[in-house]
Design goal:
The protein has a two-stranded antiparallel sheet. It has a two-stranded antiparallel sheet with strand order 3-4. It has one domain. The relative contact order is 0.27. It is an alpha+beta fold and about 45 residues long. It is globular, with a radius of gyration of 9 Å.
Length: about 45
């Protein structure tokens, strides 16, 4: 399980939408969280 960096929800990496930022994969619970990350990844990437 992975944690959505936007909302903190636990998600299944096999089913969740994914973005790669600075060589690290981030997984999302829904398209709106993915969009928020795409808009400002620096705010959510740890």
């Amino acid at each position: 399980m992975a944690t959505d960096p936007v909302c903190g929800m636990e998600v299944d990496e096999k089913k969740a939408p994914k973005e790669t930022y600075q060589g690290k994969d981030y997984y999302f619970c829904c398209p709106s969280c993915q969009w928020a990350f795409q808009t400002n990844p620096f705010q959510f990437a740890k």
